[in-house]
Amino acid sequence: MPPPLPATEWLNASLASHNYRLLVRQAAVLGMVMHLLFIGVFGYAGVPVLAAFNVLSVATFAWSCWETRARGRLVVAAVLPCIEVLLHATLASVLVGWETGFHYLMLPLLPLVMLASNTAQRLKVLIATLVAVIYMALNVWTTHQAPSHQLDPLLESSLRYTNILSLFAILGVLSRCYLGVVSRAQQALLAQASTDPLTGALNRRRLLEMAQLATARSKRNHTTLSVLLCDIDHFKSVNDQHGHDGGDRVLKAFFQCLQEQAREVDCVARWGGEEFLVLLPDTDLTGALTVAERLRRRVSDCTVNLDSGAQVRFTVTIGVAQLKPAEPFAQVVSRADGALYAGKQGGRNRVLAAGSPVKAVSSGPAPTEPSPQRVTPA
Ligand SMILES: Nc1nc2c(ncn2[C@@H]2O[C@H](COP(=O)(O)OP(=O)(O)OP(=O)(O)O)[C@@H](O)[C@H]2O)c(=O)[nH]1
């Protein structure tokens, strides 16, 4: 799992995602189509300067579309249409008047600039101020100066309503896009807050949340719930012999083994250091002991190949306990911990059950004592 990223970097990563690239490309294609139509409209209305400008606009949107295909040029692809909108709105307002509503298309530039995650705050404020000044200057200019081309009233209204509709559409799409980015970043942060960055296992905090739910469900539905507390044997010596990186590789391999043995409804969490806790809903002690023994065997068959060429074999000791009625979750963990401790004392590489009712997986008399019981000989 990659190291955790700060929130702003998650946002940047989301903005640079495939979806955002696609959105800019679609907007560029739409811009090309709209400006192709404007070439015809302004040609027909006898405003050759605007018709010619729209030829440039089509070229700009085509360029923007092409930039979305090149890696890392998303900023260029997004900035080109913004410059075009600013120039087009200014020119059109001066030549065919404020009433045509081209100035409306300048308004989405503000949220676009302010939400751009890679731009420095000062630059954002500068650009936003510039847009506001141009907008107001245009309004003042067009209030005192008649447009150089007076359009047919029907065409003027059609252009105005088209521009108003475009404004709503752009703001709607922008809001939807930003919401998507924020919710993806939120999900990523939530996942980060719930998992152990080294192995990808759930962390202790998340496990406790899930355990609270599982305990409540088990008590309400009168179903069983068990826990496995698993601790790698002599892990310190793995670190000592193969370095911390080697130890980390063993931890990851161990988590893989745990995941392979667990069902989808089970929760595997890093409880701390080289200790993992597995929560087994709808599982009684007998079932939990079976899972634990399978896991113990799987781990003892596992070989971790390190970059140094060394091969590491390791074993695990597992304490198993079933939740008793009315028992808090911390108590069942504490009993599993007691069994684990006894397993370590007894020689390691074994599965021990704690509490009552106790049943051994291996053949032999079923233990009757609530104290830790050895299930598997080392
Ligand atoms: N590489 C690595 N080591 C860790 C990590 N977290 C804890 N450890 C190491 O895990 C070791 C745990 O050692 P001990 O508690 O003495 O246990 P042990 O050597 O496994 O001995 P037993 O549990 O008694 O079999 C310590 O050396 C910790 O530094 C980690 O994230 N990565």
TrEMBL record:
Reaction it catalyzes: 2 GTP = 3',3'-c-di-GMP + 2 diphosphate
NCBIfam families: GGDEF (TIGR00254)
Bilayer-crossing regions: 29-62, 74-95, 101-118, 125-141, 161-179
UniProt-listed InterPro entries: Diguanylate_Cyclase, GGDEF_dom, Nucleotide_cyclase, Rev_trsase/Diguanyl_cyclase
UniProt name for this protein: diguanylate cyclase
Pfam families according to UniProt: GGDEF
Coiled-coil region(s): none
The GGDEF domain, residue ranges: 223-356
Top EC class for this record: transferase
Domain of life: Bacteria
Record's keyword terms, sorted: Membrane, Transmembrane, Transmembrane helix
Signal peptide location: none
Stretches for region Disordered: 355-378
EC code(s) of this entry: 2.7.7.65
